[in-house]
Amino acid sequence: MTATVPPKAPVFLGLPTAPRGVGHLRGTESFPDAARHELRNGQLRANLGHATATIRGKRAGVVAEVPDWEQLRAAGKAIKAATMARLDEHLVSLERQVTARGGTVHWARDANEANAIVTALVQATGTTEVVKVKSMATQEIGLNEALEAVGLDVFETDLAELIVQLGEDSPSHILVPAIHKNRAEIKEIFARTIPGVDPELTDDPRQLAMAARTHLRERFLRARVAVSGANFAVAETGTLSVVESEGNGRMCLTLPQTLITVMGIEKVVPTWTDLEVFLQLLPRSSTGERMNPYTSTWAGVTPGDGPQEFHLVLLDNGRTAVLADEVGREALHCIRCSACLNVCPVYERTGGHAYGSVYPGPIGAILSPQLTGVEDNASLPYASSLCGACYEVCPVAIDIPSILVHLRAEHVEAQQKPTAEALAFRSLARAMSHPWLWHLVQRGARLGRLIARGKPTLPSVFPPPISGWTRSRDLPTPPTRTFVQQWTEEHGK
Amino acid sequence: MRVSLFATCLVDTMTPSVGMATGRLLQRLGQDVVVPPTQACCGQMHVNTGYRREAVGIVANHVRAFEGAEAIVAPSGSCVASIHHQQAAVARRAGDEALAQAAEELAGRTYELSQFLVDVLGVTDVGAYYPHRVTYHPTCHSLRLLEVGDRPLQLLRAVRGLELVELPGAEQCCGFGGTFAVKNADTSTAMLTDKMANVLSTHAEVCTAGDASCLMHIGGGLSRLRAGTRTVHLAEILASTEEAVTPQQTTTPSVPA
């Protein structure tokens, strides 16, 4: 007799996150370890301190000028929340509009698919060179490495991105990828790497910009393929938009025959008028400018004008998984202004490389772990003192501290085996839930007096984790009586 | 008014003088102060470290301890902010709607000390005397979550003998951040070093704030460096009078001007 095996209930494995082994969302070290190295770099600390203080001041000045800033923020937040609630519909509508205007839309599940799509598109044109507009999405998926792997030459055209590329470095800021470098360091990189550069080059910003301009101009004029990201895509019109300051983007978006845009699916906005809100919020928050210098918009292709072939690659790479988390999904509202980086006291000291992801700073600390799955970036949600400066400046009011705390809990709750920390916290929670136990624990803390041996502070002889505190800070010797005891003795119950 | 004093777990266990000062100050201002003996913790440290499930019992104890209180005052911006912004959410997530509502209701009657003095009692001159050079560090949660604004400064400006000096970079975090100080000890220390540099640049004898936790951090760093500048809680300054100076007081400037 054969027993019928009941069919196994389907197990939901969760939505796919960004795959390992491709792109730049995971570091090689935990944040505390990476930060320890970066903190020792005095030049980095000086460069970052100077740059973030300057941009913080500029932002604060231009934001204060706008009487309805808080309403604008609220509008930005509301538009993003409404868009995310019907993201699927807006994306399909975007595809329909882009296609109707002569573009081609590709859907990429993850970094590998997106890289394969772009590589095939570039190869089909027969070119060996690609010019690039600064783009976080293509950094995220490691597109440059994928294109270089098949023998293509990739040229970053954003000044800071060029500095990073020529210096064989990695970006450390969302808006200013070379924020960790000062003028003298940039001059050294240019003098060493730009072919035929003026040997008299100095660290004068204008001279540096002109050297980059000469170097890039040649590439713009001969490029047949450009790759860009997108700041916004308008679902109702199929319009793509890139917001930049240098004009390099405009060159890339208009001169080459073929334009390929890689865009995270969260960048879509429903209507053209929605741009009105974001084009006010973005420049003031990011560069501290009242209006953005170069705002390019295009829809499909226009015969005889601009690129004659347009491809839009819609990238998921873990975004749908983020969308599924009702607390964490707010991270998808980010418009990549980097105001949160510039005000973050942690970022200002460690710099962006310590985060191990192309998305550093507070927004990176909530975005990277969600895109990869929290366990692959488990130290990032803890890389914050929860001071709240990020939430205060965010132009779309993302409650970053609350999401950090949420992700910490997701990490704690994902542990299969209880950690020493979890045991300690659970015991302490039990004590703090029962007054008599709590009073016992408080009495236990008084044992510290034995170690102190009459001194006002405890000696720094503790093992980890307490040594984390006592290596640089004294701990006061616990008092003989708690406050509640003292008060009760003086005043009665 | 009958005021229930929530000392916070840290003050109760480590710095009882802050609790005593808060209680005496409120009594001096004519309040009937009670200290519920079953109080423990608001739960913030658990929530912020990722132990939100475990925090539910702590919230329940807090709500039980202060049940029926007319007004609750705590000498901490951070703990009051947690009571306002976290307790109900933690209970609700755990499915305990009754606890969530009780916590919300209690939060509505819970005040940070400077808010209670200025907004509820309507006083800025509490009759204090503190003849020292003082700088004020606005702690992050009182600044950004509770938005206490310049209430502590209003109170300090009215203290007789007190010379208030502005702290450069005041609104930057001192690097405490609860378990952040231990989990990211190096980054926390880097932040603390810059905070201490600013504190020392004021040549103040005393750095004050509305949170004993941040003060334990800044004070721990200053003490390790053998700097003379001490950290003293706002409540202790406001509790000081000509008749009753706190034992921590001296008049020797820590850094000669």
Major sheet of chain B: order of its strands? 2-1-3-4
Query: Biggest interface and its residues per chain?
Result: A-B, 65 and 70 residues
Number of domains of chain B: 2
Number of helices, where a helix is a run of at least 4 consecutive DSSP H or I residues of chain A? 23
Query: What is the CATH T-level topology of the largest domain in chain A?
Result: Rossmann fold
Report the radius of gyration of chain A as a whole number of Å.
Answer: 26 Å
Number of strands of chain A: 10
Helix residue percentage of chain A? 40-55%
Assign the structural class of chain B, choosing from mainly alpha, mainly beta, alpha/beta, alpha+beta, or little secondary structure. alpha/beta
Question: Percent range for helical residues of chain B?
Answer: 40-55%
Shape of chain B: globular
Oligomeric state of this protein: heterodimer
Report the sheet-strand fraction of chain B.
5-15%
Instruction: Count every helix of chain B, treating DSSP H or I runs of 4 or more residues as helices.
Output: 14
Strand order, main sheet of chain A: write it out.
Answer: 1-10-7-4-2-3
Average pLDDT taken over every residue of chain A: 95
Shape of chain A: globular
CATH H-level superfamily of the largest domain in chain A:
NagB/RpiA/CoA transferase-like
CATH A-level architecture of the largest domain in chain A = 3-Layer(aba) Sandwich
Task: Describe the 3D structure.
The complex is a heterodimer of chains A (493) and B (257). Helix content of chain A is 49%, strand content 10%. Chain A has 493 residues and is α/β, with parallel strands linked by helices. In chain A, strands 1-10-7-4-2-3 form a 6-stranded parallel β-sheet, sandwiched between helices. Chain A has a 4-stranded mixed β-sheet with strand order 8-5-6-9. In chain A, helix 16 packs parallel to helix 18 (400-414) and helix 19 crosses helix 20. In chain B, the strands form 2 sheets. In chain B, strands 2-1-3-4 form a 4-stranded parallel β-sheet, with helices on both faces. Chain B has a 4-stranded parallel β-sheet with strand order 6-5-7-8, with helices on both faces. With 257 residues, chain B is of the alpha/beta class. Chain B is 49% helix and 11% strand. The longest helix of chain B has 17 residues, at 185-201. Chain B has helices spanning 9-13, 16-28, 44-49, 52-65, 77-85, 87-93, 97-107, 113-120, 140-145, 151-157, 180-183, 185-201, 212-224, 234-239; strands spanning 2-5, 32-34, 71-74, 110-112, 133-136, 163-165, 206-209, 230-233. Chain B has 2 domains: 2-120; 133-239, Rossmann fold (3-Layer(aba) Sandwich), CATH 3.40.50. In chain B, strand 7 (206-209), helix 13 (212-224) and strand 8 (230-233) form a beta-alpha-beta unit. At the A-B interface, helix 1, helix 15, helix 17, helix 18 and helix 19 of A face helix 1, helix 2, helix 3, helix 4 and helix 9 of B.
